[in-house]
Amino acid sequence: AAASPPPPPPPPPPPQQTETFRCGTSWLDANTKCGVACPSGNSTVCQPYGEYCYVNLSGEACTTPTPPSSTPVPPTPVPPTPPGPSGVELIASGGARCGASEIDAREMCGISCTDAGQCPSGTACYATHPNYCGDSNFTPFQWIDPVVSTSWARCGKSEVDARSFCKPVCNSDADCSVFSGERCYGVHQNYCGSQVAGGTRMLRGV
Predict the structure, then answer these.
(1) 28-32, 81-85, 86-90, 143-147: which is most confident
(2) Alpha-carbon distances of 66 from 123, 129, 143, 162, 173, rounded to whole Å
(3) Residue 8 is inside which H or E element, if any?
(4) What's the pLDDT at 191?
């Protein structure tokens, strides 16, 4: 008798989902982009963007580098730009930068890139959230062995302003009423609270 055909291979396991909370216009939107984090499912930090908080999202959106490309990475749309601490009008932009991760590329203001071949060994080319790295008037913090902040909302004139200058943490707009023209924004991951060159620590962002 003829031998029985081998059984078909088992189907691949589904993508691993984690207890990750992020803002989005829908679950699919939140799952496919590295949006603002909203711990414990609180949608308050998502409201300034007209979004809601979703859970059980893949972490790949926040860890996958941009693929090699021969064409420049288009800039990320950014909100209106607030003036910097010294009164200088800072220009926020997106684009891609070299780093060990998206947050590293953005917070360390890595070199601009269009593909990983332009980046130093051990780094890749990441599309970044809006930042002030491309503005010559902006001096980024020189982080030393940084860790990701556990605070997800800060006062500011915009999300970029609140995050880039490690402004005070907040729970609602009422917490920011003492700062003229500022609101409580849910912010992207950042290094606020870590030590910077000179031995100081950004305590406002702890």
Answers:
(1) 143-147
(2) 12, 13, 24, 26, 35
(3) none
(4) 93
- Residue matched to tokens 């088992």: 10
Q: What is the distance between the alpha carbons of residues 90 and 157, in angstroms, rounded to a whole number? A: 12
Q: Tell me the C-alpha distance between 48 and 184, whole Å.
A: 9
3-state DSSP helix/strand/coil % of the chain, to nearest 5:
20, 15, 65
Q: Which helix (H) or strand (E) holds 124?
A: strand 124-127
Return the closest-CA partner of residue 177 out of 159, 155, 152, 151: 155
* pLDDT band for position 17 (cuts 50, 70, 90): very low
Regarding predicted confidence, which is higher, 69 or 55? 55
Q: Are 154 and 190 in contact (CB under 8 A)?
A: no
Residues paired with residue 52 on neighbouring β-strands, in sequence order: 24
Q: What is the DSSP letter of 37?
A: B
Q: Which residue has the tokens 């984090």?
A: 37
